[in-house]
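Quick illustration, no need to memorize.
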Amino acid sequence: MASTFAVLADPHRRQILDVLRDGERQVNDLVDGLSVSQPTVSKHLRVLRDAGLVEVRRDAQRRLYRLRPGPLAEVDAWLAPYRRMWEDSLDALERRLDAVDDADDDADDDAADGIGPKDGSDG
């Protein structure tokens, strides 16, 4: 069985999952939305089904496909340390921007009090 990462490497499969996030769909709905042939969509659905990312339900003559998010936990677990890295970087950026904003506020307060640059010029 292919890993979740290998299955998600294909852009058509990711598009199928994106469509299925909104709910169950028939193959023909996916074909219309993805602008690829029905056999191609069926092939990708089989790979996604084999990987456990989608499941199929029969409703009379129709087959309805839906997302199974459980296997995406593997991807989420792999991304967790990178997410923390980005959060740390964004927190540091926020602190830096707050410090710059505070310095600008102090300069504005000084200007309002009539305190100008030390050389006596206006700016």
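Strands lie at 25-26, 54-59, 62-67.
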